[in-house]
Amino acid sequence: MYQPQWIELDGVVNMRDLGGLVTSSGDTVQPRRLLRSDNLQDLSPEAVESLVTDYGVTDVVDLRTHVELAKEGDGPLRAVAGVTHHHHTLYREDTDESGIPAAERALPWETDERRGLGKARRDPDQDRAHDRFWSEHYLSYLASRPDSVVAALDAIASSEGAAIVHCAAGKDRTGTVVGLALKVVDVPDELVIADFAASAQRVAAIMDRLRARPAYARNLEDKTVAQQSPTTDTMRLLLGALEERHGGVHGWLATQGWTAADTDRMRHKLLAG
């Protein structure tokens, strides 16, 4: 039975430790190795101290776009010596080389009008459309920015201490990268799916947080909790598509130059006692 290891700190609402998950071969993901979170901009000084001292965070894998970074500014962990930041956007069109300053550009997903899901999920057909949309959206990260996905996984495997992966809500981009990291070390699908869907417990609080942030407030005006909530079927569809198209996560990673040695590094990072 999966139980989320929530980390309750001032300034975040969707942070948890992936420690305790058991792989198919019976190994256990060690605590304080891989954390996942929503936006870190509001962390209090005490929360920053706890992450660095109690959890041993040495690396932050930031999956937000250049637009988000420009509109949000530096978070408090940026000022901490010894914490390395890795920025890997998952949108092809998101670049710091645009002629328009990032702070003046729209968020990439604001120009992606593929949603068409209505204001809420009300029937099985709409539920299925919701899950298909989001699973394809996550696959688009892999298709559009495989370099960023692999670089994010490499940052986790190479981190000296705990690595914390985050985006804005800590559920979509973060859920995709963390799910891949867990599959690299052979955590069973059902546990990966359960961890992914656990963020649904915090979506209302996430949306309240982000509505107070400059980068997200307007975009969230007409969004509902149902629209934004991850489901088990979304990740199940994603993993199923990777299995069908590439022979699984390992197969897809092999097409991107990920090697057996890289898998060994990830296993040592997450599983070694």
TrEMBL record:
Domain Tyrosine specific protein phosphatases: 147-182
Family matches, as Gene3D superfamilies: Protein tyrosine phosphatase superfamily
Domain of life: Bacteria
InterPro entries with a match to the protein in the record: Prot-tyrosine_phosphatase-like, Tyr/Ser_Pase_IphP-type, Tyr_Pase_AS, Tyr_Pase_dom
Pfam families, sorted: Y_phosphatase3
Molecular function GO labels: phosphoprotein phosphatase activity
Name of the protein: Tyrosine specific protein phosphatases domain-containing protein
Natural source organism: Terrabacter aerolatus
Lineage of source species: Bacteria, Bacillati, Actinomycetota, Actinomycetes, Micrococcales
